[in-house]
Write a structure and sequence with these properties.
Chain lengths: 620, 620
Amino acid sequence: MATAAPTQTENQTQLWQQLASQLRIDSIRCTTAAGSGHPTSSMSAADLMSVLLASHLKYDFDQPDHPNNDSLIFSKGHACPLLYAAYKAAGAISDEELLSLRKFGSRIEGHPTPDIPWVEAATGSLGQGLSIGVGDAICGKYLDKLPYRVWVILGDSEMAEGSIWEGFNTASHYNLNNLVAIVDVNRLGQRGETALGWHTEIYAARARAFGWNAIEIDGHNIEEIERAYQQAEASDKPTAIIARTEKGHGAALVANKEGWHGKPLNAEQAAAAIAELGGGNDLLIQVNRPEDKQPATGAPGDGELPHYEKGGEKVATRQAYGDALKAIGGMDDDVVVLDAEVSNSTFADAFGKAYPERFFEMFIAEQQLVGTAVGLQNRRKKPFCSTFAAFFARAYDQIRMAAISQADIRLCGSHAGVSIGEDGPSQMALEDLSMFRSIFGSTVLYPSDAPSTAALVHAMKDRSGIVFMRSTREKTPVLYGPDEQFPIGGSKIVRDGDDAVATVIGAGITVHEAIKAADQLQSEGVAVRVVDLYSVKPIDSEMLQRAVAETGHLIVVEDHWRQGGLGEAVLAALAESGTAVTRFTHLAVSEMPRSGKPDELLDAAGISAKHIVAAVQAAQ
Amino acid sequence: MATAAPTQTENQTQLWQQLASQLRIDSIRCTTAAGSGHPTSSMSAADLMSVLLASHLKYDFDQPDHPNNDSLIFSKGHACPLLYAAYKAAGAISDEELLSLRKFGSRIEGHPTPDIPWVEAATGSLGQGLSIGVGDAICGKYLDKLPYRVWVILGDSEMAEGSIWEGFNTASHYNLNNLVAIVDVNRLGQRGETALGWHTEIYAARARAFGWNAIEIDGHNIEEIERAYQQAEASDKPTAIIARTEKGHGAALVANKEGWHGKPLNAEQAAAAIAELGGGNDLLIQVNRPEDKQPATGAPGDGELPHYEKGGEKVATRQAYGDALKAIGGMDDDVVVLDAEVSNSTFADAFGKAYPERFFEMFIAEQQLVGTAVGLQNRRKKPFCSTFAAFFARAYDQIRMAAISQADIRLCGSHAGVSIGEDGPSQMALEDLSMFRSIFGSTVLYPSDAPSTAALVHAMKDRSGIVFMRSTREKTPVLYGPDEQFPIGGSKIVRDGDDAVATVIGAGITVHEAIKAADQLQSEGVAVRVVDLYSVKPIDSEMLQRAVAETGHLIVVEDHWRQGGLGEAVLAALAESGTAVTRFTHLAVSEMPRSGKPDELLDAAGISAKHIVAAVQAAQ
């Protein structure tokens, strides 16, 4: 019997299938070589990945920074063997490097990180990839105005994470039709069936209710996958492709079987599975390149840092944050500001009014707030996010992961500490300094007045890593003149005397309490040194050592819980420098605060001027 | 013209309307008296509250601990003037106390806290109330088997929080038809219109897609409200009532006006609004009492803590956690265990298999995991939650709020530190000790072997506050015999010598590295003391002081970032005790870890035995 020559479509289909088999084989090979990893979670999405890689993704692996590259975000980061297999098929890594998976020193790690140049953002804490993709897509649609597309590969288990629905909500609000979520519904989570099993119609209904185009497909049917991608590319809404798949598809031993999550096949099992899959693993794909387009550039603005009169009218540092944001928005088109529905409290609205095209409302969705920022900085923007400092706790996992993503993002938390007053403890950040100090490579700033805030906001703009600033609700005196410099890592001595009997170290609101205390003590003939520790991390260790040497007694006063804030930062820096502190007093918040006036609460917490005076006197 | 006597229905309607007006009036009065607060956010929900309070809520204000009381959770905590006005209408507080709103010393705070006996959980960080209500509802339906109902009042702005959708998802998974979400769609957020405005049909579609019964109503139409509550009570699913309302409804000055969020009326404005609302404020309502039913009690189990052989087979502390959980499940019917889809990794599945009726799967939704626990402990259960320690970062805001809620919850985080190996940094908790130390009133435990883990799990059962245990992925030697005691706040000296030249302080995995180092040094004729600091908070300050006095040099070694963990806990305790440390070495994780074998990673991080030996030798 004669067979007809294959048509082009048949050839294409064969290629996709052959590539999918190879992606499965390589996912098995590298995890078996590693002795750990997630082959079955990779195999379920191999057909989806094959068609995407061979026919839809536009990406120049030689130019990972090309501004018009598509984004490919593996939200189900544990399925990275599939991603690495795709890199190999695209010629970006060698088979040898693929097989270095999970070995010490290899960039082919257990979950993807940007040590690999084609990985935009680290994943592995589930439910975060879509939020980041939203940031990339906002940039493409509204800022860079480039036709790149953002593809996010999601697992079905992670659809239980609320952050996913923040992403869905935000994507429809901004109508991100350049965003495609590919949901690999393989039914099996780590320890059994997911809540929704193979009910793809429920996932689709949820996506539609959140304003998305949703397409249900058989995730192993190559033609259905191809049609879905075409529809997504033509959609006027963000598109969710809900693909019913089998975990471990293609190898009978593991396909749709429980007990195979995060477990490699042994050598014998792997050999059988590879044979079952046809054995081929040397296909090389030419991935489509993006059009060589450059980002839109904005109109130049007008930027000069705000001026405040030393000793003049009181200004809240949160207001100075807003003033300075607006100013740096004029200096630099790459500054983008994100709000979580509190811009009138954080004063970020000053920027929003001046540069509405670079101001994005995330509504009350702090996880998305940070996710969007990570996506934007992937695209070389300089995002600033602001909300109440307490509410960054909602995004702590995203912030932790942003550090692993090597992201440069700037976060300003307002309304810190008991000094916010009547709103009570739910609104008072009292653990934020600790939170942010414990983030890898972070910078933590806590200015006390308007000029220092403005200078530090300016410095944040080009600072790398996770940069946090704490601002204060209450208006505070302007301590510094216009020519004062505030290098990150520095500090200021704001009161002193040759015969100072103690150094009082504060930051933010407590600097003002310390000054009041120093002035009162001065009137009683007792001199103290007062330090404004505006840079909490990095910290001015040399100043601390001098304070110990010259004044003996250190008094740290902070509007923060006793743990992880200024006090421990000071002790750690001194210990690291080998400086023994014999007299140390730590005034910090130790009881649950309540509603009340700011002064009442500072006093009740034992961190007001009165308590500082008492601490100095007690040591005399 | 003669008018007919009012029918009973008309009387009822008038009562509801009159009560709603009073609730509005009192919301205005108390915020005007305070000079701050959220009257307009209260006024939008006053009709919803009126019908609920007068005709549906079953609550005995004289017995707030009655097990069959309904739950009333104000997720939109800033609208608490309405809640307090309702307490007054129910006769629970006086008008004088209502007017103490936001004053220092009053329990009538800016956001509700359990200092008020009828408040189950603190709210004010938006999007958390539903998750907590899910916990209450799970308890009523599956554990206590009581007919109480859980009413959660939500704002529309907070529907953007992902945690809300974790709540929706979990409620439908457990088919909590005893749960009613009342969504006050007043259209206006803090700084303008919400993303969805008055599109109640979108909220309703989302709720339905998440498996709920959804009812759209006019939230100022008393009859529609009454019908909706009746339908909710008869529903075989959880019900969301999507109520279109006006912010500030009832007072023309503020009704549906922008710029009135979180802003009290001045005295004159208040007087006009109160007049417009009819002026009455002395209505007293008899709230329906619950049936006097008691919770179901479970069958007694069999509980004996597991035994491990000192020096015998290695056991991972995560496994000991599972063993001990199962044991205490037998000892105490109130122990309930919650999983976030990793119970086969955390070993919580040992409990799940033994006591499936007290084991609840939250899937991958850590915010809901903690929310459910808070709800369960409201109902006097003793919840244990477990997931990878890194992923508790996802619920840090919930944990922070749980402390304000005065909740007693137990959290165990597994897979901590670089010692997890190949999975890479996304899975490695390196900030968890810092996170949990900075939670008010918390307990932080980090045992190094199986017997100490089992003993501490047992101690966690009846410990109040937020209690965290960190467990280790790798199997570790059994250090302690069966009779050893592990009081919270204690520590153990596991190696020592009269002539010890240093004290090496570790916890968890690093205790074993320290022992290896001590044994090696011993063979070289150098004695060191090794301390197992299994209780990180509270910390054994007396032991630390002795270590300084007796050995001089302290070496703290921890599988955690340098900030906020063991090292700073030790420094803070010594500083508080007035003990100067002249020689202090801190071995901690300082660079971003990668994939690799546990030993390779401990070594690369500088926290292995080799580095401890070097630190001791360098100081000689």
